[in-house]
Design brief:
Largest sheet: 3 strands, antiparallel
Helix content: 55-70%
Distance between the termini: 93 Å
Structural class: mainly alpha
Number of helices: 4
Number of strands: 3
Order of helices and strands: HEHHEEH
Length: about 110
């Protein structure tokens, strides 16, 4: 009976050593993958946040080279979003105007 127990303990010790070897190999592979990931990761420099400029009607008409009625039509159709400051004042986001221009340039066909 003692011999059987000794054999079982030896086999378990061998299995433990084999598992330790497998764990060591896996840890090496994980380290290699992490090193490769860090090399391939591009760190984007943090850009400072700039507040969006608000433009009045005249500025928007000048940028888009359109008249008052065309501007009103774009707002009514929801193409441009007007920001109401008070009862009489409306402003437009410069970034929204520039995005509108980019969309129009992308959609234009010659």
């Amino acid at each position: 009976m003692e011999t059987v127990i000794k054999l079982a303990i030896e086999r378990m010790s061998e299995e433990i050593e084999r598992l330790k070897q497998i764990v060591g190999e896996q840890q090496k592979r994980i380290s290699e993958l992490e090193r490769n990931r860090n090399r391939n990761t591009v760190v984007e420099p943090e850009t400072p946040k700039i507040e969006d400029e608000l433009l009045n009607n005249e500025q928007v008409k000048s940028i888009l080279k359109i008249g008052k009625n065309s501007l009103i039509k774009l707002v009514r159709e929801g193409v441009l979003v007007a920001i109401r400051i008070n009862e009489r004042s409306v402003r437009f986001s410069r970034s929204a105007i520039m995005e509108y221009i980019r969309r129009k340039q992308g959609a234009s066909t010659f």
